[in-house]
Amino acid sequence: MKKLLLMIASIVPLSLIFNGRNFFNILAERSLGEYDESFDLLFIGNAFGFTALRDASLPFMLYTLTVAVVYLFMFGHTMSDNLNVSDIYVFIRENKRTKWFVKNSARIYLQSAVIVLVNVVVIWLMTAKMGVANQPGDIGKIVGITMMMILYIWILITTTNLFSALFGSTIGLSVGAAAHYAFVISARYGFENTLIKNINPLAVIFNMSENRRSIVTSVIVMGVILFAVCVIFCTYVNRSDVSLNNKEILV
């Protein structure tokens, strides 16, 4: 519990640094009677760092979406560390590696989801305090984006843990961060491409946020991508000799 609270205490300020700059602008604009942006756009921009692909510059997107990398450093090597060290002894006694994978994935997913939701609630309350509108016009879209951002972070975490198990946490975290930025760039410049729209998790989220794809379809696509990554990782766990594949450098 203490570790989870520490993570929450870390992610919320960082999220506000990357995505909450509008709060101060709004306070100034409200004092001049010039602010009229809707709650929905303000909240989505502050909570997730984007509103639309067509109008966003790439440097702005790279900056605001950097907060996702923080989750990688929190969770991106947790499972691989257990796989390479403590849980080797579990596999020696019983060969239930799929059960181990599901249990560890569920723990990491639950913790990361809690942090995302707490962060969203904090920004929701701060946005409401701006007095723009206390009742959002499209609660379904906000809930949908929240769900898909959680799924996106799960995809990044699982992928990073897989590469950490294969090559060590330093390379794993680097690959995970690089994959995130690659998703951002391809989503920005390839959002009209059918393949990118279907296999790039961030492009899926952007297309839903811009009303170019339904929430249900978007969540299903994200779920399929996450399932595919989990199957690959679980297959590696079941087939590899983990005791001989520890890539960490021990000092």
Net shape: globular
Total beta strand runs: 0
Reported for the largest beta sheet, the result is: none
Q: pLDDT below 50 for ≥5 consecutive residues: which ranges?
A: none
Work out the strand percent: under 5%
What is the alpha-carbon Rg in Å?
Answer: 19 Å
Structural category: mainly alpha
* Average pLDDT: 79
Order of helices and strands: HHHHHHHHHHHHH
Distance between the termini: 29 Å
The helicity comes to over 70%
What is the number of helical segments per DSSP (H or I, 4+ residues)?
A: 13
How does this structure look, described?
The chain has 251 residues and is mainly α. Helices cover 76% and strands 0% of the residues. It is built from 13 helices and no strands. Helix 1 packs across helix 3. It is globular. 35% of the residues are buried. The mean pLDDT is 79.
SSE blueprint and pairings:
Layout lengths: L1 H18 L2 H10 L7 H10 L9 H7 L2 H9 L2 H7 L3 H6 L3 H33 L9 H29 L1 H21 L4 H6 L1 H9 L5 H25 L12
Helix pairs in contact: 1-3, 1-5, 1-8, 3-8, 3-9, 5-9, 5-10, 6-9, 8-9, 9-10, 9-12, 9-13, 10-12, 12-13
